Model the fold of this input.
Amino acid sequence: MITIQSGKLCIPDIDRFVGFAGDDSVMTKQLVLLNRASDSCTYSLCLRFDNDSVCTVPLTASVDGDDVVLSWEVRAEHLLQTGIVTAQLKTVDSDGSIAHSTKDFFIVGSSAELDDDGCEIEYVTPSQMRNSINQALETITATAPYIGDDGYWYVYDPEQGAYKKTGYTAGGIAPDSAMSDTSVNAVGNRYIKQYVDTACASKVSTTTTVAGLALTDNISSYSLADAVRGHLYRTGVIPNVTRGTTGQLGIGLNGEMFFCTATDVWRQLADFRSAEYKMDLIDEIDAADEDLVDNGNMYLMDNGVYIRYDDSGIKLAKSADVYSKSQIDSMVGNIEALLAVV
Done:
């Protein structure tokens, strides 16, 4: 059974043969896309022949449980040349995103009426077929990526003609047969790199930390709060000297509390003792204790407000205890007129 799992195309040897040149609708191949129960995508099989000609075959998709079964009815126009045919699955999602699988290969046999170029051909011996397959495998695996002794992936750079180190490590996942030098299911370097780049693009590196906490495990709210607590306030705050962030709390050299209103601008906060003292500036006393009040101080006594002056208590008048000018005029007449007569 031909399968595609996690982007890896795997064609068993028994399923590699897809017919002879000129065959038309006599064979159907099924590719099972594992763990992808989606019917909103379109699928096609990209075929590249030894002469670099390319054929793209649309596939019929049907959902089977958690899998998608892709059917390829092999037509004569799909078999452009005999020999080794490199194959790769192309998936287009409903949002337009495109993904490719790894590469594998099929085999197209020659027929008596057609050769590789559509002319009569001579028979191909089994040894010639094996040599052709071996040569194709050598070509495909010549630039296969590998894991170096340092645990990093190395890929072949065709421009430099040499392998170069990537930023990806094995990550504890052992390389499978599609990545080894002796694999019968080898994959071209650029397709592996494309698959790795796509798979890792949205992943967070395991070396990334949050407030010094590694992302290799779950981070509890208590651990996160403990890690960031020291960044929420400043210690040893000196106003107009210590740099701060608006909204940040600070503790002064003597334990006083500050609030940062702008860069370097710290406002000292009053503690409860200061606030309590300010709310209790005027004391309420009994008449027997009036002589204990110092001159110049205000105090409450018998529901009245007094001030101590020359060792005596002077009661301060309230608005209700003072006559207005209109009230005086009504009682004794216009006071200004009376003064004028005098």
Notes: The chain is about 15% helix and 35% strand.
